[in-house]
Write a structure and sequence with these properties.
Layout: H1 9-25, E1 31-33, H2 35-48, H3 51-61, H4 65-80, E2 85-94, H5 101-104, E3 112-115, H6 119-133, E4 151-162, E5 168-172, H7 177-180, E6 184-191, E7 197-202, E8 205-213, E9 218-225, H8 231-242, E10 248-250, E11 257-260, E12 263-270, E13 277-283, E14 285-292, E15 321-334, E16 338-351, E17 360-368, E18 373-379, E19 384-391, H9 415-418
Parallel strand pairs: 2-3, 13-17
Antiparallel strand pairs: 1-19, 2-4, 4-16, 5-6, 6-13, 7-8, 7-10, 8-9, 9-18, 11-12, 12-17, 14-15, 15-16, 18-19
Helix pairs in contact: 1-8, 2-3, 2-4
């Protein structure tokens, strides 16, 4: 995002709120999702809706319906201006569907395409759009098409960042049985910046947060909760930390001992004076998930909009429209050199209805993410969560699992970049 540009605070709170609610409803298996990708579409639908559908969509969006479209446009413009992130909105309609000019003119330019009414032909066009807009990360548009589909409103969001300090690949050693049975790809690095890690006291238990800084102000926060905490509780805690709702004790202020989930502070003996260090071990992952948003229709404010017995979007078209399908496909990859994630959303509208001699001692903070954990990918200064997920099946250990990344020889391996806050 360009220097000087900002996201509106109310919009950030609204989007992150949807992220937290979605996380609370998520299944415990591995997943990835992006509320930021779907939120503008819900806001645009709210602007064009009426009655109970309008009220439900506004509640899901977290803003009054009359403010939703402008907030969506500002969010989309901010995302488009952000370095390391690509976003797009697409709209396809049948030629016979007339759109309301005020609503259609509020969409980004060059977003309108045509549906032929042939589902196989239309899906080829929509899939090509998803493939192009995500740089090949997602190949299919998550929408169910029928000859009756009158409208498809879609969005795509792609995030790529390189770590300011890369990790080293190593086999992951863990006592967590589901992961110990197969050699997993571990990632390790050491830094003198202790405050990259901290422990938060939340209503559901303590959560260890590790901030992994990337280029262009894009970071990933890894979150490990106490055993027994649910994915929603851990990810929700991460959102609360971003909102400064939970006190966090940083690594530099932690006492000796086991101080948090997967986190300990130990005495490290050496032959020369050394500063305290933070050793991080985590797992590489590649998570892909598909979501039928209609299974969580109340969460997304779509309950009334599903009723095809009548139309609910007179602000979009004079023809009665209802929601016939809604889906998201999301993917997230975390490796030694960086992170990438993508999400595509679509709404289908239908007629509606580490022993030398001991001389010195220093502290070493050790953080291990070696059992299921959550992640939040976000815009650092705005604290806007762009993608989130839960890791239950890390990658297996192989020699070169990240061939698609550049070799990183020109990366800054010092602390200069790492000290960015």
């Amino acid at each position: 995002m360009r220097v000087g540009s900002r996201f509106d605070g109310a919009t950030v709170r609204a989007v992150n709120g949807l992220t937290a609610r979605w996380a609370a409803a998520a299944h415990p298996e591995g997943t990835a999702f992006s509320a930021t990708a779907v939120w503008p579409l819900l806001a645009l639908l709210a602007d064009g809706a009426t009655g109970a559908a309008r009220a439900e969509l506004a509640e899901a969006v977290g803003l009054p319906a009359g403010q939703a479209a402008e907030a969506a446009r500002e969010l989309l413009a901010g995302l488009a201006a952000m370095a390391g992130l690509d976003s797009a909105v697409g709209l396809w309609t049948k030629r016979t569907l007339e759109l309301r000019e005020p609503w259609a003119s509020g969409l980004p330019a060059d977003t309108h395409g045509v549906l032929t009414g042939d589902p196989s032909v239309d899906h080829q066009s929509l899939d090509a759009w998803a493939l192009k807009r995500t740089g090949g990360l997602i190949e299919r548009m998550p929408v169910a098409l029928t000859p009756d589909t009158e409208l498809v409103l879609a969005s795509a969001l792609t995030l790529r960042t390189r770590w300011l300090r890369p990790f080293e690949e190593t086999p992951l050693e863990t006592a967590y049985e589901p992961w110990a049975g197969t050699e997993r790809l571990g990632l390790w690095r050491r830094t003198s910046v202790l405050d990259r890690v901290g422990v938060a006291d939340t209503p559901h238990g303590h959560v260890t947060e590790l901030r992994v800084l990337g280029t262009d102000g894009l970071d990933v926060h890894l979150l490990l909760g106490e055993e027994g905490m649910t994915p929603g509780q851990v990810l929700g805690a991460g959102i609360g930390i971003l909102a400064r709702e939970h006190a966090v004790v940083p690594g530099s202020r932690l006492p000796y001992g086991e101080v948090g989930p997967g986190l300990s502070v130990v005495k490290q003996w050496s032959t020369a004076p050394e500063p305290p260090t933070l050793d991080v071990t985590t797992a590489a992952y590649d998570v892909t998930a598909s979501h039928d948003l209609l299974e969580l229709h109340r969460l997304f404010g779509l309950t009334t909009a599903l009723d095809a017995r009548q139309g609910h979007f007179p602000g979009i078209s004079g023809s009665p429209l209802a929601i016939g399908s809604a889906g998201q496909t999301a993917t997230a990859r975390f490796g030694a050199l960086g992170f990438e994630a993508a999400a595509v959303n679509a709404f289908g509208g239908i007629p509606g209805g580490a022993a030398p001699t001991v001389r010195y001692v220093t502290a070493q903070v050790r953080a291990r993410f070696d059992r299921p954990f959550g992640f939040l990918a976000l815009r650092r200064h705005a604290r806007l969560v762009l993608a989130a997920g839960w890791v239950t099946d890390p990658l297996e250990f192989v020699e070169k699992p990240w061939e698609d990344w550049e070799n990183g020889e020109d990366w800054d391996n010092g602390e200069n970049g790492e000290s960015t806050v």
